[in-house]
Amino acid sequence: MGLGKPARWIIPLVERIDSSKLTELVVTDVVSMMIPRLVIEYKERGHDMGRETFIREVLGTLDSNFFPGWIGFLGLKLFQTPQSFLHKLLNPLGMRHSDWIQNKHLEVFGRTFNPFVSNPQLKTRNDILHHFVNNTLNGLESTDALAFHPQFRQFSQSPKPARLIPAARERLTALLLRSTPVNGVHRKNYIASIQRLASQGELTSEVVLKNARGKILMGGTSRDAFFKEFKAFLDHYAAKILPTGELTPSLRQKALKMLYGDQRFSRFSWFPRKTEGLIPYAQKSKWYLSLLPLAIGVGISCSISWVNRWVTQQKHHGEVFFPGEKAFEGLAQHGGSIGFSPRFGMQTPLLNAFDFERPGITATPMNMLIYGSNILSRLTASRSSNELWENARRDGLSWLCWFYTTPVIQRLVVLLAPKHVREALLRKNPKPITGVLAKLNWHVNPLSRWHLMSSQQILDYMGRPQLNPYRPFLNQLRRWRGGASTIGLLTAFFVLGIGINLVNIAITRRNVILGKMNLGNSPS
Fold it and tell me: Collapsing DSSP states into helix, strand and coil, what is residue 221?
């Protein structure tokens, strides 16, 4: 994809956007929806509509993208403060979640750890931990397809492509089993050294965890986040429940009970209890840490349109009207055109879906649900049929495009790439092990069935000196990947920011003019 000189600054900028789903959503929201809508509404429909658009778009952007993360971060601080009500209610064991582990990942770690604790051939704590860590590292694999290309495979020191090289796996096992410094700064440096060693061991920036049969246990996640979470599980769960010395059958049973507790009673308790196993206890407490920000975010989103309506009523002494109609009321009498000329200057998969990847960063399902509730409030607060249909057209399309336009356009653009580029950038995901809906989604949803190589993974390969002979090919991949994202963002801008707004204005203007004409022609 020959972008020429603009690629020197466009591609690095797009790569920064690609590095985080939240960043992509915020940029798309601000550039493709908030700013162009503010300009168009103010220019075309005046002060009242401009003010309502400002309140709607700015508060909607903050609420969907930032408020849940900020509230979740504050909740975590209160959760870990012994004097707080939240700590006494949800954290009676005084566990710390500074090293955040997503609930679905905690479940995977617990399930894969269980067989090692139960294995009578592993006599000591060190044996169990060593085999567990080594087995887990052996199941890690990069999500990109580039490692499977014959010309790249010959440069890998690993017998299996996209896996850790044996030497790095051994060093990582030893490093992960070392005790972690308690001090925050030292711990941060310690975790950074683990993440650096993983990158040198040929794992790119996004990984999956597979079992011995090649089935995915943990979907594509950040390599650095995985090692941070895995080390937290070793420190706060695995090592905590295993006694030193040789394990007798009774000690094994005690360890398993400490890990999972009595599941028969645990599932009937809504709140975490001291007598529960560590994993169900942590999952319940963390579920509330995700539920509280989500509930507040939904509450705010449901009130935004009603706040808009109230503010406009106050300015106009209680009159209820849609400012989008007022702007066109005089056009019929003055021969106004129907056209327009724009001017510009308890854990379930459902509950786990809303879990934070890390505190302070709003999860994408939270964005989706909060924006959905915002749309519902806009529909219910509509003051006329024109406003109702404007909201339905604008926000229904916006919801779909905001979350899906860029990734869908990216894949469509990549499909146009030369075969060797397409095969490097796109990789088919394995079929899910369980879940009827997950399997159906895999069959029909291209975003689930195909995985697109990330910009950061391409940069990971470009940082390897042994791949210098293939630098032109890697640069070609980088241009196609960045170009695909650029086209996706531009599509969102023209469809969401400009196109749908101008269509809404044209339809409402037409309806208002025709309504006035019909009113004038009706017999008195």
Answer: strand
At 362, the amino acid letter reads T
Cα 381 from Cα 303, distance rounded (Å): 9
- Describe the strand order of the beta sheet including 216-222 as a list of residue ranges: 140-142, 206-210, 216-222
Contact 258, 236 (CB under 8 A): no
| Among candidate residues 259, 291, 267, the one with its CA nearest the CA of residue 363 | 291
195 vs 207: CA distance, rounded Å: 12
Residue type at 425 in one-letter notation: L
Q: Say what the pLDDT of residue 239 is.
A: 86
Closest to 45 measured CA to CA, from 391, 508, 371, 481: 508
Q: Nearest to residue 33, comparing CAs of 497, 502, 522, 382?
A: 497
Query: In 3D, which of 487, 495, 494, 513 has the Cα closest to residue 17?
Result: 487
Give the C-alpha separation, 454 to 23, whole Å.
14
What one-letter code names the amino acid at 194?
I
Q: What are the pLDDT digits (tens) for 167-207?
A: 999 999 999 998 877 677 788 888 899 999 999 888 999 99
Lowest mean pLDDT among 10-24, 49-63, 293-307, 381-395: 10-24
- The residues near 219 (Cβ < 8 Å, ≥ 6 apart) are 208
Count H helices and E strands in the chain, helices first. Answer: 25, 5
pTM for the model: 0.79
Percent of the chain topping pLDDT 70: 88
Tokens representing 482 are: 């960045």
How far apart, in whole angstroms, are the C-alpha atoms of residue 453 and residue 146?
8
**Rounded to the nearest 5°, which phi and psi values hold at 267?**
-70, -15
CA distance 313 to 348: 44
Tokens of 57: 């778009």
Residue 500: which H helix or E strand, with range?
Answer: helix 500-521
pLDDT at 344 over 60: no
Let me know: does 264 contact 328? Beta carbons within 8 Å.
Answer: no
* Pair of tokens at residue 494: 């023209």
Asked whether 120 and 164 are in contact (CB, 8 A), the reply is: no
Give 374-380's long-range contacts (Cβ < 8 A, gap of 24+). 374/60, 374/63, 374/64, 374/301, 374/302, 374/304, 374/305, 375/399, 376/302, 377/301, 377/302, 377/303, 377/304, 377/305, 377/306, 378/56, 378/304, 378/305, 380/305
pLDDT at position 230:
95
| Residue whose C-alpha is closest to residue 291's, from 373, 356, 349, 229 | 356
CB 17 within 8 A of CB 30: no
* Tens-place pLDDT, residues 395-412: 988 888 888 888 888 889
Q: What is the pLDDT of residues 255-299, one digit of tens each?
A: 888 888 765 545 556 778 777 888 888 888 888 888 888 899 899
